Q: What sequence folds into this?
DNA sequence: GTCTCTATCTCGGAC
DNA sequence: GTCCGAGGTAGAGAC
């Protein structure tokens, strides 16, 4: 990995055109050829970048660049899309290279998958007598998170989200439309189960006859850990 | 911005839990306290990170860490969510700090950059006798889009926007305040050049003695293409 | 390869 | 502030 601190301007042309005026920034040039341009603030997203696979080259300076005070010009071109990043360096402040080796990678645990698993284990939270048919119930347009039968034997399709928004309602609507065409399954009710739901999403859901179930993650996790049953 | 190359392990607890086993990585510690952990590959997304606003501290080592060979332990805690990142450093390979200043930010969408270039080429649109001193005229708080001299030799600072709003007026005001402190430049007039300007921005600009220039992008582009000069 | 969905999404704009 | 929609979305998983 090569780290360069430089006063530079950057131009991107691809899906859109974008320009970074002259300023001092970090240029992170990774081993796979990719380039990240970071300022001293903002979030983890670089100001500009080029993703691998891409080719990196140092170009000849033309008269305009020389006149403008450019001391080096980089060009990074994406190998598939042709998107290009041009970096004009006016002053090189720091330049170092480091051998980092291959990273073992991030070990994650616990997100939406957790919520899904917990609800499957505590399917009674949906309503009395609810029974899980299967998780990730397959349909032609993708799997429904949970397929459940209520106490009367009628089907319920459940979509689990951490935060439910309009998209979640639309997604569940599509599933329900498809599932209700199957005479073996119909009628299928829909339940949107989430830790939180956006007001407009709730309105839309209610309007479409989709029920909303708020999930208390911590409580569900407590049940899972067995803690509440200690006494 | 502080750049550290170190053999380290990283733990995140927050929305989820995540762990990075010991390996050599780049730790980018930004001026706003945020921390990015990058490997020498992958995309622009760090392996792990903490977004601002957050607090950074170096912690006392406990016996376990010392026994494991930890030489330094960092803790970065998000000020609102409480999400926390713990970095255990086993070996410090590189450590450097750099003053980058405030970044002028990305100009997306190409149109604004286009406008800037076109106005530089057709600087006479500003007023009769106007002459371009330079584009991206540098100041301590970032570059002014265009520095121009009027027919009497007085300076004009021009800020170019696609849509000018209050922020644009504030930005130009800051530049003018700074530039007018320089006896070599003063007095510096200010012109806000835009395709459109919000009513409140226009009012504020006029109130501050900043002139407003409406730009006709299509007309300027037409001149640029050379079409009108063919006959 | 394709499609589909998630994300510690990030980021901007509108209200 | 909150909510909503777009992103050069990226990345993972299923098929």
A:
């Amino acid at each position: 990995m090569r780290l360069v601190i430089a006063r530079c301007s950057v131009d991107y042309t691809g899906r859109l055109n974008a320009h970074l005026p002259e300023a001092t920034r970090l240029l992170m040039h990774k081993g796979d050829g990719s380039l990240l341009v970071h300022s001293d603030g903002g979030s983890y997203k670089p100001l500009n970048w080029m993703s691998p696979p891409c080719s990196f080259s140092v170009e000849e300076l033309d008269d305009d660049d020389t006149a403008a005070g450019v001391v080096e010009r980089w060009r990074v071109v994406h190998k598939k899309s042709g998107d290009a990043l041009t970096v004009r360096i006016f002053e090189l402040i720091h330049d170092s290279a480091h051998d980092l080796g291959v990273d073992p990678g991030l070990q994650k645990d616990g997100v939406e998958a957790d919520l899904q698993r917990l609800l499957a284990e505590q399917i009674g939270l949906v309503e009395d007598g609810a029974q899980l048919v299967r998780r990730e119930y397959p349909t032609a347009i993708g799997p429904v998170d949970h397929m459940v039968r209520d106490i009367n034997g009628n089907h319920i399709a459940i979509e689990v989200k951490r935060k439910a928004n309009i998209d979640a309602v639309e997604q569940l609507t599509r599933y329900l439309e498809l599932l209700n065409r199957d005479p073996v399954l119909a009628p299928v009710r829909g339940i949107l189960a989430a830790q939180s739901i956006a007001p407009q999403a709730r309105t839309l859901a209610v309007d479409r006859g989709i029920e909303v179930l708020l999930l208390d993650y911590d409580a569900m996790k407590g049940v899972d850990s067995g803690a509440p049953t200690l006494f």
Summary: Chain B touches chain A through 57 residues (CB under 8 Å). The first strand of chain B starts at residue 2 and ends at 13. Residues 166-179 of chain B form the longest helix (14 residues).
